Automatic annotation (TrEMBL):
GO biological process: DNA integration; DNA transposition
Ranges of residues in domain Transposase Tc1-like: 70-139
GO molecular function per UniProt: DNA binding
InterPro entries given in the database record: Homeodomain-like_sf, RNaseH_sf, Transposase_Tc1-like
Organism expressing this protein natively: Rotaria socialis
Pfam entry (one): HTH_Tnp_Tc3_2
Name recorded for this polypeptide: Transposase Tc1-like domain-containing protein
Lineage of producing organism: Eukaryota, Metazoa, Spiralia, Gnathifera, Rotifera
Annotated stretches, region: Disordered: 51-70
């Protein structure tokens, strides 16, 4: 959905106006809820022409109305796993024919990106303090004398697929431990990589 003229002038006021708060680009994005590239575009436009109104366009008119664009964005926010094809089918039931490509463009204009679902465990203060103590303890470590090793797992029944992620509103799913999986272990050091070991169960310690 296109940025409203009011929001464009709000960006300029927050960032550049002498009586405004003189906020940074990052802080402005948090207020107007648009990405930093959009903020920079309208600030550059103001610097060049002092005009933030829509330029006269040539070619065919926009394929969707503002109301239809709001509906597209609402569907993607309400159902992050939804596809452009499904949105097109929903609109067609209401008598609105819009291509999947146009739907993707409208969502991209709103800052959305069709990307992988983010699975992120939450850290608590206890974890933060442990990491700080570890870093302080190893300040004098000679890392050329250290072997780094780690393991990863290929899990069955894990959450997969792409979702519509909007700025500052990424979709997060809670996952459970101990799924059926195959483990892989490997290591490396300053001289190169070690072997990769595959195993089904963790060895007993």
């Amino acid at each position: 959905m296109p940025l409203s003229v009011h929001t464009r002038y709000e960006i300029v006021f927050l960032s550049n106006h002498p009586k405004g708060p003189q906020q940074s680009h990052v802080d402005v994005t948090k207020v107007v809820h648009y990405n930093i590239s959009t903020v920079r575009y309208w600030l550059n436009r103001w610097t060049q022409s002092k005009d933030l109104t829509d330029s006269t366009r040539s070619g065919r008119p926009r394929a969707t109305t503002e109301k239809q664009e709001q509906r597209i964005i609402s569907l993607a926010k309400e159902q992050p796993f939804i596809t452009a094809q499904y949105i097109a089918n929903q609109l067609e039931r209401r008598g609105v024919v819009v291509s999947e490509r146009t739907i993707c463009r409208r969502l991209n204009e709103a800052g959305a990106r069709y990307s992988r679902l983010m699975s992120k465990p939450l850290l608590i203060e206890y974890h933060r303090q442990n990491r700080l103590r570890w870093a302080q303890h190893h300040k004098a470590t000679d890392w050329n004398q250290v072997i780094f090793s780690d393991e990863t797992a290929v899990r069955l029944n894990s959450v997969k697929g792409l979702v519509w992620n909007f700025p500052r509103n990424k979709k997060v799913v809670r996952t459970v431990k101990h799924l059926i999986k195959v483990n892989f272990w490997g290591c490396f050091l300053s001289k190169g990589f070690g072997r990769i070991i595959c195993f089904r169960e963790k060895p007993r310690r």
